Amino acid sequence: MHVKAEELRGSATGKSIGVLTSGGDAQGMNAAIRAVMRTALFAGATPYAIREGYQGMIDGGDGITQLAWEDGSGILGKGGTAIGTFRCKEFTTREGQLTAAGNLVEKGIDRLIVIGGDGSLAGLNEFHENWPDLITELTEQNKITTDQANAHPRLMCAGLMGSIDNDLVGTDMTIGVDSALHRIRDAMDAISSTAASHQRCFVVEIMGRNCGYLALAAALCGGGDYLLIPEVPPEDGWEQAMCDQLTRSRQAGHKDSIVVVAEGAKTRDGEPITTDHVREVIEEGLNEEVRVTILGHVQRGGTPSAYDRWAPTWLGFEATAHLLTSTDIQPPEVFGLRGEQIVRLPLATAIPETRSVTTLIKEGQYDHVLDKRGTEYRSLLGVFNELTTPHRTESKKTDKRIGIIHAGALAPGMNTAASMATWLGISRGFQMIGINDSFVGLAEGRLQELVWKDVDGWAYEAGAALGTRRHTPVVEELYAISRSLETAKIDALVIIGGWTGYQTASLIDAERSRYPGLQIPIVCVPVAIDNNLPGTVMAVGADAALNHVVESIDQVRMSASANRRCFVIETMGRNSGFLALLGGLAGGAEQVYLPEKPITMESLGQDITWIKKSFDDNGRSFFLAVRNENASKNYTTDTIAHLLDEEGGGRYDTRTLIIGHTQQGVTPTPADRLLATRLTEAAITQVANQINTHDTSIMCVGTSRNAIGFTHIDQAMAAMDNDAQRPQDPWWLPLKGVLDSLNREPA
Ligand code: ADP
Predict the structure, then answer these.
(1) Is 566 strand, coil or helix?
(2) Which one-letter DSSP state was computed for residue 40?
(3) 562: enclosing H helix or E strand
(4) Which of 566, 568, 550, 676 is nearest to 28 (CA)?
(5) Under a CB-based contact definition with an 8 Å cutoff, are residues 324 and 15 in contact?
(6) Candidates 71, 110, 118, 165; catalytic one
C-alpha cells in the first residue's frame, strides 16, 4: 500500500475530486466509485459524481453533483454503474473539452478519476494534456476569472481500467473480468452437463473483440475441446483439424464436445470466424447435432464477484489517496493490480501500448501479440493446447511414477489440481499414481494408477475424490510411508493441500536421511480456504470460499432490510483473517474482527459507541461485523452479539450467522481453476526436471505478483508464524486500513 489510511484522515480539506464512468460498463465499477467518494470524504475532500461519462462534464449543472457518504450505500454489490456511462462524441472535440473544463473549474474540481476502457482513458490523457491550453482559452474568453485559472493550473487525474476484455498491458485483471468469468463458468458448467447427457457438441461464443482472454479462460475453466481466439488465428485447414480434434476427444472418453469461439476470432486472412460457420463445419464433419450458444451481454451483467468488489475498492482508495496527497503534479497514471500488488502505469504509454495489440493482430504479428499478453496468457494457452492434443505421449513414455496426494482440510480446487496434475503428467509420459486418504492411506499402501478417464469428472467439482486428512504423521509413521513409496516405486510426489501437507513436507525434509523412500523430489501445491500457506500469496480455494462469504453477506443484508439490525457473521479461516477481512471489504461490512488484530474491551466499547451514535444520529438501520472464527478465545461471536444487543438498548435487534463448513464445499471459482491449472503445470514441470537432475529438494510452488515461482520448504516455512499457522506478514492485512476508511461514516 502506498498511502497509509491513518495519514490520510482529514488531510485533504478544501480539495475537490470528480469521478466518472465512461464507455462500456463492467461489474465492479460501483465498488470503485464508492471507494473514490468515501476515500475523499475520509480525507476531508469533496467528491463529485460526473453523470453519464464525459457528457456530465459538458452538461454541467446536474451533470456534476456533490456526493454524500450515503450515496455509497448499497451499490457495492450491484452490477453496472450507479452514476451512468455514455459514449460521448462531443468530448472528442476541442469545443466539448473546453466546455467540460469550464464546468469543472466552476465547481473547483481539478482532480479526476475515470473508470472506463482504453477509449475513455485515452480521452482522459488527452484532456489532461489539453488542460493548460483550455484554461488559457477560458480565461481569454472571460468564461473563468484569472483567480480561477491560477487556482487550477493543471488537472490531476488517474484512470482505472474497467473492461471485461482484460487487455491492459502490464496488469493481470481489469475491473469486470472476474465477474464475467463467473457468468461464463456458470453457463459452461450448465452446457457441459447437458452436452454430456446427450453426447452433443456445443459451440459457445464468448465476448472479446481483440482479446481472447475470456475465451481462453472459459475453455480452460469449462472443459473446452477447441478454441478460436484473435491472438492465435488457426492455420489453413483448421476446419479439418478441429473435427479431428473433436473426434479424438470423444475417442479418449469425453462425452461432450465444446468449441469456444471468441467474438473477434479471425482466420489468418483476417476473415471473421462465425459460430454459424463453425457449426456447419462440425455438423458436416462429425455428422451430429450442434448447438450454438452466444453468451453475449450476460457476461457483463449480474452481481460482481468478490474480486470485483475488493480489488476495485482497493484501487479506488489508492488512486484517490494518491491524487489527494500528491504535492507535485505528476503525469496521469492508470492504477491496476499485478497479483497482490498495486501497479501504477503512465497513461501516456500504457494506453497506446494496449491499443497497439489491435494493430499487431491486424498486421499478423502474432508472436508479438502474445508477448504483450504476458506470461499468464502464454502459459494458460500452453496448458490448453497440451490438454487438447492427446495421444502424442507414446513417444515420450517413461517408467517414472509421480504420486499425487492430498493433505489438510478440504478446499475447493483440490479435485481441479489433482485432475490437472494427472492429465499433464500423463501427457508428459509419466505414470500418475493417485494416493487415497492422504498420508494415512499412503502408509497403508492404498494407491492406484490413474488414467485419463479416471479424473475426467473431477476437474470442476468441489471436494477431493482422492480423499484428504488433517493428520500430520509423526516420526514413527514415516517408516511405513517410506516403505509404501518404495514398494510402489514412486519417483516424485506432488502434495496438493493445506497446512498439514506443508508440515508433513517439513517433517520429511528433516527426517528423510534415514528413509530411502522419502528421498525423492517433492512439490507442495497450495490449496486452502484460509489462504495461510507458505511460498504463495494466494492458495487455490480461497477465492471460492471468499465468494461464498460475500454471497452470505448479501443474503444477510437482504434478510435484514426490513428491520433495524446488527449482524455478526462468523467466517472460517482458523488463525488467518483473510476470509473475514476480504469478505468484509467485499461485502461492505462496517467492522471485521481478525486473529491478527486483538479484540479488547476498549475496542468493543468504541464500536458500541459508534453503532449507537450511528443508529441515533445518522439514520443507520443495519450494522454488519464479520468475525473470523478464531479472532478471540473469549470474545466469541455470541459474546460480541450479546454485548452489542445489551448495549444497544433496543435500538436494533442483534443476530448472528455462522457460515460454517459450506465454505469448504463450494465449487471452485474460475480464478481457483486457473490458479490450480497454472500451479499444477509448474509443479509437474518442476518434479520432472528434478527427476532428471536427481534433485530431491522439497519445493513449494506459489504465486507472487502474478508470477509463478518456487521456494524451498525450509525457506518458505521460515516466513511463517508456525504456532499460529499463518504468514508472519500477510499482504492483505493493510487492507484493514482501507476498510476502516470507507465503512465508517464521518463524525
Ligand atoms: P471504452 O472506454 O469502453 O474503450 P470508447 O472507446 O467508446 O469506450 O470511449 C468511451 C468514451 O471516451 C468516448 O465516447 C469519448 O467520450 C471518450 N473518448 C474516447 N477516445 C477519446 C479521445 N481520443 N479524446 C477524447 N475523448 C475520448
Answers:
(1) strand
(2) H
(3) none
(4) 550
(5) yes
(6) 165
pLDDT at site 255: 75
Residues 6+ apart with CB under 8 A from 105: 135, 138, 144, 148, 149, 152
Distance from Cα 122 to the centre of ligand 1, integer Å: 7
User: Which residues face 18 on adjacent strands?
Assistant: 48, 112
Is 118 one of the catalytic residues?
Answer: no
Confidence of residue 299 (pLDDT cuts 50, 70, 90): very high
Cell numbers of 500, please?
A: 498439514
Least confident of 17-21, 44-48, 167-171, 182-186: 167-171
Q: Which amino acid is at 572?
A: M
pLDDT band at 217 (very low <50, low <70, confident <90, very high): very high
In whole angstroms, what is the distance from residue 204 CA to residue 222 CA?
11
Q: pTM of the prediction?
A: 0.97
All three cell numbers of 65 = 453533483
Helix (H, G, I), strand (E, B) or coil at 492: strand
Q: Which of 195-204, 252-261, 350-359, 431-440 has the highest mean pLDDT?
A: 431-440
Q: Whose CA is nearest to atom 9 of ligand 1?
A: 119
Say which residue the cell 487525474 belongs to: 157
Q: Say whether pLDDT at 718 is over 70.
A: yes
d(CA 702, CA 419): 18
Q: Could you tell me the end-to-end alpha-carbon distance of the chain, in angstroms, rounded to an integer? A: 25
Gap from CA of 368 to ligand 1 centroid (Å): 26
Which numbered atom of ligand 1 lies nearest the CA of 116? 2
Measured in Å, residue 332 CA sits from the centre of ligand 1 at: 16
Which residue puts its alpha carbon closest to atom 14 of ligand 1?
87
> Do 406 and 467 touch, CB atoms closer than 8 A?
yes
CA 62 to chain centre: 36
DSSP string, 126-192: HHHHHHHHHHHHHHHTTSS-HHHHHH-SS-EEEEEEB-TT---TT-S--BTHHHHHHHHHHHHHHHH
- Nearest residue (by CA) to ligand 1, atom 24, is 123
